[in-house]
């Protein structure tokens, strides 16, 4: 797929119309990306029975039985940092909050070699209970502590930057033919001969040739007569 996109980009940039299309697409893409700005809320996971799965990338997933949706915990984002013992020694999972965003798709590889198309969402806060000491342990991310009511995902700065880049490229590509024409004119002027040139259609006449006559030198004793 990346190779195909690279080939398409090269083909577009080789033609004038393609270059204009690239600039227009960047402008449109920047505006659309900016319009996707939204407020992100933290919402609790659905009610049900959950189990914890250790992922191969070092994260953990809360999985509702009978579903393929994983609520992912990135340990290094939490305070305190949860480890294997925190999940193994728990007797129950309390409240779990996650970012209310579009889920990301991924392929889950099971121990039996099978693969399952799954979805993941990011957890920002969860609690684990322990019957051993009758305590409840709460783990939260820095983002959740800073913005417990959610936050605004403002994508306009990046969108404006992309649109401005597209606008600049579009203007440059529009002026490119005129720039090339002026450059060609300067090159033609540099090779033009200097001085007056005969008018086209006017015959040119070369002066008649005069035969060479050697001078006459008188001999001694002779007078010079003209």
UniProtKB/TrEMBL annotation:
Pro residues bias spans: 205-218
Keywords linked to the UniProt accession: Membrane, Transmembrane, Transmembrane helix
Transmembrane segment boundaries: 20-40, 156-176
Domain of life, per lineage: Bacteria
Annotated region described as Disordered, given as residue ranges: 204-226
Official protein name in the record: Uncharacterized protein
Organism expressing this protein natively: Dictyobacter aurantiacus
Lineage summary: Bacteria, Bacillati, Chloroflexota, Ktedonobacteria, Ktedonobacterales
